[in-house]
Hints:
Blueprint (H helix, E strand, L loop, with lengths): L2 H15 L4 H16 L5 H11 L6 H14 L2 H13 L5 H17 L2 H17 L6 H12 L9 H10 L3 H29 L13 H23 L5 H19 L5 H34 L2 H11 L4 H16 L4 H18 L4 H15 L7 H10 L3 H24 L2 H9 L6
Amino acid sequence: MSFAFIASITSLFGAALIGAPIALGIFAASITYLLLSGQDMGLVAEQSLNGLFNSFVLLAVPLFIIAANIMNASAVTDRLLEFCIALVGRFRGGLAQVNVIASLIFSGMSGSAIADAAGIGHIIIRMMTKEGRYPRGFAAAVTAASSVIGPIIPPSIPMIMYALVSDTSIGYLFLGGIIPGLTMAVFLMAYNFYAARKRNFPRDEVVPLNKIPGVTVRAFPALMLPVILLSGIYGGATTPTEAAAVAAAYALILAVFFYRSLGLKALYISILEAARSTSIIGLIIAAALILNYLVASENIPNLVADKLSGWDTSPLVFMLAIMALFMLLGCLFDATTLLLIVVPLFLPTARSLGIDLVYFGVVITLNIMIGLITPPYGVLLFVINGITGIPLREIIREIWAFLFVLICALMVLVLMPDLILFLPKMFGYLPQ
């Protein structure tokens, strides 16, 4: 490892310590490396822009963000929530179960944990805390935990990032996320059932059975979005990027023409917010591309692989060590940074140990998402604190039980790879 690389990493951590945005810190570290190693400074622009312009799959990111924003700004989310309440709201602690089911359905449309928490999650928190029916901290914690499902059930923006650095099929990654997402939902709902009985949570207003068909019909067009996405991708009609465009167009048609609940001002705000979110992600990706070039120049991934291989590490021990590492890093750094910068360091080792990269990608994605709710710096905790005003200490006090439940679900998936690879195999995937 050269002096130039050590100096660049030092400058990166220095930028992080003074609170500089991660993308700017990475650019500063890259410039430091090129200056000290005597290389052409134009490599910063060349590597970043070439990587962005040559990756067609990245177009899916802003399109999925637009689709989620449109649904949050219109009555689409309300129809889905009404359907979830009719489905599971009749049980004790029903709104907690509604929270999980709503996240499960909405995750099939947004691909983002933050979009889930800030959209439909925000609405359910208001419903749960109305008249003190549920403790504020519990309502926020179950919302944060269920939002983790968002990037696991397809479509998934983090999985798109992983596919970018690992050269893995997005389609198979999406398929691999379905059963893990359902597994997480089952674990969370089981805990909600236990907590509702132990803490005597109220029974919520029951939707009469004769009204359920009408509620289902009103929600049906919105419920069809995940079906259209997946059938388009796996039926060969669209690529994942084209499916993202279909999702955005379908959400717009539903909001404007079917539900008639999206005005020009709301549409403008939705597109503006999508542009802002995309620019932040795009800047991090551009910075990561040049940093990955520096890491490759120093041969760091192969050095890491050789070092770990020299320890005669078993695949299971490696996976457990990776889980512990990313659980820690996930509560300190955002998911995009970890997926684009840290994950590539361990891909050669995973390949050398015979670990399937679809399985590895799904586990890593879930691992990083759990890090988003890990105290004290889990990003989702701050997001929910910001949009609801619920004190962070109340959220943290309640989040530990949900964190334990999600880690148990993760352990099941790590120990049973076939749960992840079952659907990809059905569609012709040959595990490595």
